[in-house]
Structures are given as C-alpha cells and as structure tokens.
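Q: Hi! Curious about what Sodium:proton antiporter looks like structurally. Here's the sequence.
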Amino acid sequence: MDLLLGVILLLTTVVVANIIHLIYPKIPLSIYQIVAGVLLASLPTATTNFTMHPELFMMVIIAPLMFNDGQNQSFHYLSRNFRSILSIAVALALVTVIIAGTVLHLALPQTFPFALAFMLAAIITPTDAVAVKSITSSMSVPENVDGALEYESLFNDASGIVLLDLALAAYQSGDFSIGYGLWIFVYVFFGGIIFGAILGSLLIKLRIELMRSHVDIGSIVIPINVMTPIVIYWLAEELHFSGILAVVAAGVVHSILYNRLQLTSTKVQIATTTTWSIISDALNGLVFVLLGVLLPQVLKRTSLANLGRLFIISLVLYLIMTVMRYCWVRFKLVKIDSHRNQLNRDSILMAIGGIHGTITLSLAFSLPVMINHHAFAFRNSMIMIAAIVILISLLVGAIVYPILLPAKTQSYTPAEFRQQLIATVQYALNQLRSQTKHSPEQAVVIDQLSTQMNQYHQFNQQRYNQLMNRAHKVEMQTLDRLNEENTITDREANFYAQFVSHAILRNNQHGLLEYFQLLWHRLKWHRFRRNHLHHHLVANPQLAVDPQQPLLAVKQQRQAILKVLKVVTKNVENYLQSIENTTNANEVALVRRVYLQQVQLFSRGQDLDADVITGLFIEAFQWEHSFVQEQLASGQLSQELANALNEKISTDELVYAQSLD
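A: Let's find out. The predicted structure is below.
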C-alpha cells in the first residue's frame, strides 16, 4: 500500500510541476520537477522515503525511455552518420573518462585511486537529450546540433554503463587487464546491439503475421510494444550484454517498421505513438522528481565542510567534460556538418549541450552498498557529486542557451490561428447549408462541426446571454406571425408558448422587458386557447369523458410543439447565420445547439440516417481543406499556418472516422 501511495504521489508531483511549467515556461521543466521532488520529500510522511533499486529503475524506467528514443530515430539518418555516432558516443566518452579520471586521481591520489576515479568519470559521462529539450523547447536549435546531441545521448549511455562496470570490476579485484577490458567492452557493446536488433526483428515479424491474420488491433499490438523494452533489457542483461544498447537497437529496428507501414494500420500507429508519448513524458518526469526526492537523503549524510569540497570536485569535472566536448567538435574529431563560419558557435552549443540526467542518476544509485564484504564508503559522496554535476549542467544550459539561441518564432500567432480556424469552419458550414436541404441530419453535422472551434475560443457568458435573448425574440415574433397567418391553431400556439416560456424562465439573465413581453404573449395565447377549447368541447361533448383523451392530448401536444419548433428553429438559424462572425462563433454554436436539442427532444422515435450524416461530414472536411488551400494560393495564409490548419482538420477527421467503428 505504501508503494502504491508513493507512486501516486510521484505522478501527482510530476503533473503539478508540468502545470506550473505551462504557466511560467521560462524556467526549464526539469528544474521545476527537481524542486517539486525536494518539496515532496519534505512532507511529514514515511511514504516519501523512497529507496532506489538500480536494477528495477533501469529496467522499468530507463529501458522504456531508451526504446522510445530508438523508435523515434531514422535508420537512414543513423546509418549515414554511423562514424560520427561512434566518434561522439564511444570515442569521446572513452577519452573523457580517461582524462577526467586521470586528472581526478592526480589531484586527489589518496582519495581517488585510478579505478575509483574512472568509476566516477563513467557515471557523469552520459548525456540526456530530454533534459536538453526541456531547456531548448522554446528556442531555435540548429538541426545539425540538435541531431548530434540526440544520437549522442542515445548511445553514450551504454558507453558509460560498460565503462562503469569495467572500473567497478577493477576496483573490486584490484587488477585490470587492458586486453580483457577491451574484449568485455566489445562483447557487451556490440553484443547488446546485435541481440536487440535480432529480437526487434523477430517482434516485427510477429506483428506482420498478426496483420496478415487480421489481428492488428490495439489491444494486442500496443501491450506487446510497451512490454518489449522490459523483456529485451532483462534477457540482454541475463546474457551479460548491454541491456540499454539492446533496447535502443530494438527501438531503431521498430522505427524501420513504422517507416514501411506508412499509411497501413494508421489507427494503431497513432494510438501507439500517443501511448509512448504519455509514457515517455511521465517516466522522464519521474526521474527528475526522484532526483529531487533523494537529494535531501544524500545531503543528510554529507557534512557541510565535505559538501563544499564535493561541489568543487563536481565543478572541476563538469569543466573538464565541457572543454573536452568543445575541443572534440571544434577540431573536427566528429563531423556534425557545421558551416565554417558557424563551427565555433556549434562547438559551444555542443559543449553546453552535454547536460546530464536520467542515466547519470541511475548509475550513481547503482553503485553497490557493499564491496568485498565491506561498506562502500565513497558511495554517498559519488552520488552527491553526480547530483551536483546534473544540477550544474542544467543551470548552465538554462542560462547560456537563451543567450546563444534565438527564440522560436512562428509565422502566425495563436490568435491568428484561432481566427483562421473559425473562418475555415464557418466556410464549411455555409457550404453545407447552401448545398443540401435542411434536415435533422444536417443540423447534427453542423452542431458537431462547430465543436472544432471550442478549444481555441474563450467562452463569453454575457455574449451568450444576449444571443439567447435575441433568439427568444425571434421565437416569439415567429409564433405571432404563424398565429396571425393561421398557419398554426391557437391551441398549437399555446402549447408552444408553454414550452418556450419554461425555456426562457430557466435563463435567469433576462431583463425586466423580456419578462413583460413573455407575460403578454402568454396571456394572449392563453385567451385564444380558452376560446378555442370552449367551442371545440361544445361541438364534441364526447371528448370530455373519453379515457384515452389524456394520452391523445399528450401526443397531439408533442406533435404541435414539433411542428412549430421546426419553423422557429429555421428562422433562428437564419438569424444566427446573419450575425455570426469569428468573434461570436462559439456562442452562436452553443445557442444553435440549444435549439437542436429541443428538436431532438420532440423528435424521439425518428431515426437519423447514419449514411447521410457520414456523407455530410466527409463533404464538410473536404470543404475545410479546400478553403485552406484557396487561402494559401491567394496569399492570405502562410505555409506554416496552412499546415497547422490542415493538421487540425485531418486530426478531427481521423477522430470522426474512428468514432464510426
């Protein structure tokens, strides 16, 4: 029960941090999450005293994250940049560990023997592209730098893990063989890639066979996809391969599947992408919240004097790694396709982009508590150094990147997008009204299409009340005219008057004038009804004692109201169409919905033609796309805005298509 409550608290903290970031996005999301974790740890409950289990953490959190990163990579891009990947993810990681470890040992030989220094250097070597993106989400990062940072973090995690294992083995045994170490590195590194690629291929074949058997459904494919990284990581570790590289390789192989599927199995692909997006965001948030929760625990075991010493060590190690990264790019030891005049800028961006996060934290907590039957005295200090390096890299990135990078700009503002979307939907609605006859199916489609605008419109209660008042005036005027023209009887007018009066009285925003007008109409129609009923009963006295008369009266009353309501709704619709614009579109749609629901209420038993509704929806979406293309061709829209509108329309179209299942 404590574990379940702890997970709920962690997820709640992630959500709260995300909400605060939405309100004030200038501070990186990862910083919010770390601070939220620290605050969570301060709660007076034992539930927040989490214990890090490194193996479980790597398998349940890190493996799915790395698998998802692999799924989002382009195999063509990775194969084209294979040499660059080896350079920055393997060679740079190896050289950094050697140089940082050597400097640390030479500076503090009594505290850090070679093996221990290399262990610490291996822990802080892996980078985190997600942490970089949390900082640069609102900035325009050069594509070559962004791609290099992403594939570096995809593979240098495994380099750090393998190097840590080698250093740990050397520290435990007190001996290290270069030949044996090289063999282990090759076995673990490339064995993990090959093993993951093979299992990934087998799972792809399984999915293809399921598709051929017409079983490509979300309830089977998505659970298999979600469980894949956990299973592959566990099997790879059992065979002493790199579990991280295995899940990355499997993810890359899966990315090939998605490229080949293209438009086949679209529904499952979209559901899978959405599922992984949610899982990835939640797991990344959990990692940084956990860092915040565990920081107080580590600080409690660290004296103030030792904390200052650890901070200096962390700062020196961070500077060494940053300088190494700058030199590696500046002197073209890795090719990231930088222009000659941009090489220095890109080198600085790559250096600052060496931000640490999930893997560094998990490696630090994976250090054993006992080594050779003795307590590992340096464990807490190394965890503290890793945490400080993470915080320094995040803070430096949050400060320097906004200085070096311009903010992302769009060729349109949110207000322009909303205005053009409303105009697009209104065009489709007008085409729908003009090219088809008025019908219940048409009213349903118009109402549903109007919801496309709701997400981007702030509801105005005062405007809605004013529109409802005007619509009720149209109702009463229509009723007067129908009664004067003898289109409806006095009795039908009275029935409808009772119905509309209840609707008006439910709206407490009406003024005194509207109530007097309503009262006048009620008195007039009530007098007409009494006269009509008196003459009708004199002519047909048997109706007064007929036991079936109450049921017949109810049925006649419903038919009378429906008869009048259809005429009234048409007139209200014409009025709303005449005054509708991009400002009041949402309120107009809500008023229109009120009258549609009234018609549906009194039309029970009348079936709607689903095929007609589907056809109208297809036509409407086509009109929306056509309108966007016409506006783009005429220069009224930018290409970026047109793409955003078409994406919104296509998403709505897909949602409607899925609702037909």
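A: A fun detail: DSSP finds 25 helices and two strands in the chain.
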